[in-house]
Amino acid sequence: MNEKSVENEHIPVMLQECIDALKVKDNGRYIDCTIGGAGHSSLIMKSAKNVHLLGFDADRKNFNKAKKRLAEYGDNVSIVNTNFVNLKEEAEKLGFEPVDGILFDLGLSSMQLSEDGAGFSFQYDAPLDMRFNTEEGLTAADIVNSYSEKEIADLIFKYGEETQSRKIARAIVSSRPIRTTTELADVILGVIPKRGKIHPATKTFQALRIAVNNELDNLESALQQAIELLDEHGRLVIMSYHSLEDRIVKTTIKDASITCKCPPGLPVCTCNTIPRLIPVTHKVVVPGEEEIKNNPRSRSAKLRVAERINKNRT
Ligand SMILES: C[S@@+](CC[C@H](N)C(=O)[O-])C[C@H]1O[C@@H](n2cnc3c(N)ncnc32)[C@H](O)[C@@H]1O
């Protein structure tokens, strides 16, 4: 392996923690919604006997990679090259339900952040694309070159939580057309000088990626579908990498775990709310110091776990 491929090899984050949380069992059925390089999925397959796995990846290269890596498991593994927003539809098509565990390891793999990636990273010069599926939808270049200044500012603020969004949007509009990752990063550097370790383009790149792939709406929808697919005591295991995703995960688990929605002060509960989840992790789990040292890309990971309950009552 040369230096570049070592650097681009995806190291699975909180691997053992995720597998333990899934409680992989013999003859169990699991879904990996973000199969990537199949790091987590390989260990799922090895952790018990006769495990069945359904994997998703919207990115064609990662789909191919995962397929190759898990080929030895034959019919026990199915992988689909589609967005996890189609989770329930695909599982139903394959008769793959109810399931014992569902994993989401959100975001990008190291392969996608590498030189050969679809313009996700400003560290490599590439066309400004950012689509997981490069065959449909608007690219990041389409957005920066055609949206109004206000629309760009709002998008960067909403999806990047970037407080300097107006300044950046103004610079983008006056530098159009912008075609590559480096051009965009340079435009941003021109108005926000680099201070400290974080590149000033980080939040803008995050915002564009979220918008291009409709990531937040898709996540909200897929989490609801996942709850429906889980069997009684099935585990929902989610790793997120930024606060917007984590907020959706936290709120989904909280809302599905509520036991009573009656207004405060009622003497008895009349709402008959039936919770569908019970939280397993009460505080978010993060990687240890050693893992962050060995794999700096793990530093922003946040793991939350919940268990399906009342399957036959809801
Ligand atoms: C962090 S990587 C997963 C790495 C994997 N757990 C491993 O150990 O190799 C996330 C993967 O999910 C895919 N992905 C992200 N959002 C997706 C979505 N909405 N639908 C399907 N795949 C998605 C990405 O293309 C990427 O391959």
What's the topology here?
Elements: H1 3-8, H2 15-22, E1 29-32, H3 39-46, E2 52-56, H4 60-69, E3 77-80, H5 87-93, E4 99-105, H6 140-146, H7 149-160, H8 165-174, H9 181-191, H10 202-212, H11 215-229, E5 230-240, H12 243-257, E6 277-279, H13 289-294, E7 302-308
Parallel strand pairs: 1-2, 1-4, 2-3, 4-5
Antiparallel strand pairs: 5-7, 6-7
Bound molecules: S-adenosylmethionine.
The site of S-adenosylmethionine (SAM) has 21 residues, from helix 3.
Question: Could you list some keywords that capture this structure?
Answer:
single chain; 314 residues; alpha/beta; Rossmann fold; DNA polymerase, domain 1; 7-stranded mixed β-sheet; 13 helices; 7 strands; 40% helix; 13% strand; globular; disordered N terminus; binds S-adenosylmethionine
